[in-house]
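Need tokens for this chain, all 170 residues.
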Amino acid sequence: MINKKVTDALNGQINAETYSAYLYWSMSAVLEEMNLPGFASWMRVQAQEEMSHAMKLYSHIIERGGKVVLTAIDAPPTQWDSVKAVFENGLAHEQKVTRLINELMDLAMAEKDHAASMFLQWFVAEQVEEEAAAMDILGKLEIAGGTAGGLYMLDKEMGARVFTPPAAAE
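Here are the structure tokens for all 170 residues:
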């Protein structure tokens, strides 16, 4: 059975992952307003991914006999000045989530919760991917230099992303 400290921390992470989805939905809406449907679609896929992360945490708590406690989700920002600002904010957010995951891992190890430590390894690896994806897009935006043609090409590329749920065994 999972202990209360770990359960409480995982419940907090469910909230953080759900907030992440809210943030990416908000970013998607702003990108739609900028007439960049590909970037908007990329962010909607990102929101789906964040919700799947929340459900992984939810399921882990349930499987281990813990109690899921859902709390209010903060409202995300609703305005950014540019596509670059959206992705800079996205990278900063993913860096914050990485810190949260690392703190969860530290807690699991301190509590000698080996099952939680093993479970959280997936999230540690996932955060490397999340940060790398944001940095990659920022690099491409830098190369495009805000030109209409560059943004058009990147928008088409971003629109090709599709949601792939994580495997159930992970």
